[in-house]
Amino acid sequence: MTQMNRLTGGLIDQSKPLNFSFDGTSYKGFAGDTLASALLANGVRLMGRSFKYHRPRGVVTAGSEEPNALVELRSGGRQEPNTRATVAELYDGFEANSQNRWPSLKHDMLAINDRFSNFLTAGFYYKTFMWPKAFWEKIYEPIIRNAAGLGSLTGEGDPDLYDKGFLHCDVLIIGAGPAGLMAALTAGRAGAQVVLADEDFRMGGRLNAETHHLGDMPGAEWAATAVAELASMDNVRLMTRSTVFGAYDHGVYGVLERVADHIATPAAGKPRQILWRVYSKRAILCAGSTERSIAFENNDRPGVMMAGAVRAYANRWAATPDQNIAIFTNNDDGHRTAADLIAKGVNVPAVIDIRPDAPKVVGAELLAGAQVIGSKGRLGLTEVTLRLASGEMRSISCGALAVSGGWNPNVHLTCHQRGRPKWNDALAAFVPGDDLPMGMTVAGAALGDLSTHGALAGGAKAAVAALGDLGMTAGIPILPKADDTPVKLTPFWHVAGKGRAWLDLQNDVTVKDVKLAHQENFVSVEHLKRYTTLGMATDQGKTSNMGALAVMAEMTGKSIPETGTTIFRPPYTPVSMGAMAGRAVGKEFHPTRLTPSHKWAAEQGAEFVEVGNWLRAQWFPRTGEDHWRQSVDREVTQTRNSVGICDVTTLGKIDVQGADAAEFLNKIYANAFAKLPVGKVRYGLMLREDGIAADDGTAARLAEDHFVVTTTTANAVTVYRNMEFARQCLWPDLDVQLISTTEAWAQYAVAGPNARKLLQKVVDAEFDLSNEAFPFMACGEITVCGGTRARLFRISFSGELAYEIAVPTRYGDGLIRALMAAGKEFDVTPYGTEALGVMRIEKGHAAGNELNGTTTALNLGLGRMVSTKKDCIGNVLSKRDGMNTEDALRLVGVRPVDAKDPVPAGSHLMAVTGPVDAGHDQGYVTSAAYSPTLGTAIGLAFVKGGAARMGERLRLANPLEGSEVLVEIVSAHFVDPEGEKLRG
Amino acid sequence: MIINHPLLGPRDAQEFTYLGDATLINRPYWLSENALRDFHDYLHLRDNPAGEHRELWFHEQGDRSWLVVTRNTVTHKISSVELACDVARANGRSTGREEAQVA
Amino acid sequence: MDKLTALTPLGDVTARVDTIGGLEIREVVDQAMASVAARLGQADLTKETTAAKLGLVLPDVGLSSQAAPFTAFWMGPDQWMISAEHDSHELLASEVKLALGPCASVVEQTDGWCRFDITGVAVCDLFERLCNAPLRQMANGAVTRSSVEHVGAFVWRLTEERVAVIAPRSSANSLHHALIAAATSIA
């Protein structure tokens, strides 16, 4: 197919043809084309269907503000819906499809919606689907969901990578048009660290779209020269295809760089996009301006476009929507489009200017004081109807209409910190207000300086000022002579008429919808937006907000600034979820921490479980075990009968030193530590300041002024944070120093009646492990395996004779292998977190399920641990009356009366007979397990007044599953209640 | 947000963990006559100003300093950043032993 | 019993070296480390004693210092990390404690950490994808604690083209994965 609407010249490379397809048809474009420019060049104006009425639509703009030409790019896992054809760069093999149509773009079944447009007005959904109520979930919602949205996803995973990155600069310059380039040149030449970011793939902004000269150079050439100079500076970073999408607190900006969207697929290991976080000392917003339309009846046909966009297609992309283009304008800038089109050989049948005193600028017929009142053409514009100044009607046949209603400064980023723009009467537009984000200034068209000269001068001035703030000096460079025509415009927003005149093309909102919303008393702009959906979706109203505001103002009889503006929020243009996620996907969602025995455990075929970021062995299946319970029961039994080994490195370890270390521990633990002898370990309970149990662990005293404190795996970070809080904020003059040593030591629990015998084979002979020399709760420094330094703690979580042995982490793998080899004669077993859990339930030790953020020391049966002789965090409030009632919850054991019954965790305890409801609740089960030692299920529970209810029978109720089990209240210490084993 | 750490200079707020009102430094004396009421008020009664707020931040991904940051909760403007241990000492906190003497 | 074999943080007997594009990522396992925290009010004495006994000037905020065989970097207020060659200073913590006496708390940190040294002209480009540390503005010898792809780490600019990253040992594999991914990304 020939490119029937391709012109000569432009900034495309006509020597580099590219093949692409749209809706399955093959076309040719050139390097430098966007999908939109290439389709126009190929005579394709119809690019999509509208959101609500499924009306045929074509491209309207030439930039990221595009509301209409949304397409699906690529296919398979890389399919990307709702992508603007105006910013989709062409490459060889490029593939795009239209959306929101079935079966085809030209014949769309849902176009029937357009016939019912009288019903589908503002608030249609709110009004229609109210009744009957029961219909909502089953009928209305599925139908609406099916019809809603534009593009589609394939449901396949995105195969591409997305990076994140961090940049630091003195000055971030947003936009590389004349203002941005001049700001960058000024700051760059002065030696500042500059980042210049532009969303386009070619820097220059409107200079690339206009025919203006700067000095003796065409604008685009001047821009290229400036970019070349900037590229040669080490202190300047040029970022094309990079949208600054958000202005955040204190000079932080979000930038999305599309590094591989313009090629078929990213190279292996390379990202598609990079989400940058830019830390700037100053930022200069040079984001340019966006042209706005004039609404008239049926102004949404393919071929009705913004005048500046038509000019950009002709000048930059050598493409035109038609060979016959009329102009409709309320300002002088519209005439430029006529001039440029004529220069490119495109016929301009008429320039229709609403101003009776419109100047005659070009050779084309000028219809001053005329208005476009309608259009024709089913799938694309064929004719416009005018009402002339005289009141006469006239039709002009044309394939495109270039409309200019004036230009709106792109103030979006100035509003991201809740700044409000202010009204400028001369431009009939909002310009940046006074409350800009910290460190931001604005220059060029974004500030309302719409001439090229104004942009150059403003950019230079802003850079000098920004550098001045930073204590750097820069001179105003000599500016090239450039266009400095003032803006001449008569505000005009919509042509009066009965038919539908579109304001928001993306959301199908018409002038009538805004009037209806007002009639129904939606007088706030924010309400209008939500009621009509105006300004929502991918374009966020860049081309529509002003028109709607003007109509609102008209209805309320207020001025536009009195009517208000909506709040602009990030992102400026859409940012994909993939970019937000970055590399944090799949198993890299968060960092993984591996234990010292991980490699060995993996060799044993261990099943692993995530505990926070840690991967811990959950159980170690042996040949023939096909259910986890078999492995866990065996691990428990083997440990209780002989000996088992568990990696407990993940428990937090905090080294506490200083002359006041003991006094410090007294303050952070409920129980006392000052008198703990050197060489001994003590269990410790930490409270929150409100008296609720926070964490528990042990503290080992290695010297008078040296302790090692352990925390639970889950709370290691918070306990350390709280200890630093106590040290720095509460008692800053205590001599105490803290540092985490969790990772420095590989620590294994060796538990079971044969634990000592096993350890004796590993621990070097000079260390006496006998009960007399190394009793329960002893600790000390030893060596193992012929001289490796180690720490030994005689502590027990399982209730067995047990030790925890620690070596420098590098030897952790060696030690587990040595322990397993030494234990072979005792039939040693490794055990995982499940068996660990079973054994601690059997022993009645509280863990996370019991320290659940609602329980006190008293509830846990540890009330007497809260010392009354000293202050500690949580001491005072733990004594509140309500937390110390007679019938307070107490930790007990429950066991089913019928040993075959289960004990479902989370079940609530009720009287044996009577109602099962909250009013009769006696308590609840926190932890439950099958105890291979007792041959029955068991549980730990909090029961009202539990200590006095041993032997009582209660009903364990789980109304959700309809289960009820008769249980008996017993001591929480199912195994060895007297503690003989662990002291043996 | 950027927090201008008194030792390290400007640092991204992402490196910090937020706690809340800096009055949490002023922990009451445990044996005072109204200890229960004092602790209740200390823990639960705080101002929630729309404006300047002194608050505690912990530089968890940094040097582990607790900071007192004076921040406008409406504009996020940060007007001062101090080491919490300095603030604590200025507020009369020391080892805890002094409380008994004062009381 | 046989002597225990040491494994590297990445879980092998020898240190890992990867070369991607112009970048070398080297697992460093030959350093012993000990933290030194001055006792209350004894920061000056700690600095004086370290200088006198070890010949090492403890560095200011965000910096590092060196005096063979020791190197030190600043960790936090009145706290430093001292390192030395592992095989000749395996008991570095005891050695330092012996030298400093009661003015400081010393804690063995050797196996609490993994370390990777990354060398190449693109080293700043690499860290730009991983971490918010302003590496390009950091002078040689500057150290900052930050987060590298969600792993808390010290980032230490050794020279123009060489940076050390020191992170908790258990996260070595995740950190290594992130370094390799970023190196591939910029290669």
Describe the structure concisely for a colleague:
The complex is a heterotrimer of chains A (984), B (103) and C (187). With 103 residues, chain B is of the alpha+beta class.
Output the helix-strand order of chain B.
EEEHEEEHH
Q: Into how many domains do the coordinates of chain B divide? A: 1
Question: What's the level 1 CATH class of chain B?
Answer: Alpha Beta
- Major pleated sheet of chain B: 4 strands, antiparallel
Based on CA atoms alone, the radius of gyration of chain B comes out at 15 Å
Averaged pLDDT of chain B: 95
What is Rg of chain A? 38 Å
CATH homolog superfamily of chain B: Folate-binding superfamily
CATH architecture of chain B: 2-Layer Sandwich
Name the shape of chain B in a single word.
Answer: globular
What is the CATH fold-level name of the largest domain in chain A? FAD/NAD(P)-binding domain
Note the beta-strand portion of chain A: 25-35%
User: How much beta of chain B, percentage-wise?
Assistant: 25-35%
CATH architect. name of the largest domain in chain A: 3-Layer(bba) Sandwich
Please report the first level of CATH classification, the CATH class of the largest domain in chain A: Alpha Beta
- The total of beta strands of chain B comes to 6
* Largest two-chain interface: A-C, 65 and 51 residues
Provide a count of the helices of chain B.
Answer: 3
Number of domains of chain A: 7
Described by the principal axes of the CA atoms, the overall outline of chain A is elongated
* Main β-sheet, spatial strand arrangement of chain B: 3-4-5-6
SSE layout and pairing:
The complex is a heterotrimer of chains A (984), B (103) and C (187).
Chain A: E1 13-22, E2 25-31, H1 35-41, E3 46-49, E4 56-58, E5 70-73, E6 80-84, E7 94-97, H2 124-128, H3 135-147, E8 161-174, H4 178-189, E9 194-197, E10 213-214, E11 217-218, H5 219-231, E12 236-239, E13 242-247, E14 252-258, E15 271-285, E16 289-291, E17 304-306, H6 307-317, E18 325-329, H7 333-343, E19 351-353, E20 366-368, E21 371-376, E22 383-387, E23 393-397, E24 400-404, E25 407-409, E26 422-424, E27 429-431, E28 440-442, H8 452-469, E29 502-504, E30 509-510, H9 511-519, H10 525-532, H11 545-556, H12 560-563, H13 577-581, E31 593-594, H14 598-603, E32 607-611, E33 614-619, H15 628-641, E34 644-647, E35 652-657, H16 661-668, E36 681-687, E37 693-703, E38 706-711, H17 716-730, E39 737-740, E40 745-751, H18 755-762, E41 779-784, E42 788-793, E43 802-808, H19 812-823, E44 829-830, H20 833-843, E45 889-896, E46 908-910, E47 923-931, E48 936-944, E49 953-958, E50 963-970, H21 980-983
Parallel strand pairs in A: 1-7, 8-9, 8-15, 9-12, 15-28, 17-24, 18-19, 18-24, 19-20, 31-33, 34-44
Antiparallel strand pairs in A: 1-2, 3-4, 5-6, 5-7, 10-11, 13-14, 14-15, 16-25, 21-22, 22-23, 26-27, 29-30, 32-33, 34-40, 35-38, 35-39, 36-37, 37-38, 40-43, 41-42, 42-43, 45-48, 45-50, 46-47, 46-49, 47-48, 49-50
Helix pairs in contact in A: 4-5, 4-8, 6-7, 9-11, 15-20, 18-19
Chain B: E1 2-5, E2 9-12, E3 17-21, H1 35-44, E4 52-58, E5 66-72, E6 78-83, H2 84-90, H3 97-102
Antiparallel strand pairs in B: 1-2, 3-4, 4-5, 5-6
Chain C: E1 17-20, E2 23-28, E3 31-38, H1 43-54, E4 64-67, E5 70-76, E6 79-85, H2 92-100, E7 104-108, E8 113-119, H3 123-128, E9 143-148, E10 151-159, E11 162-168, H4 172-186
Antiparallel strand pairs in C: 1-2, 2-8, 3-6, 3-7, 4-5, 5-6, 8-11, 9-10, 10-11
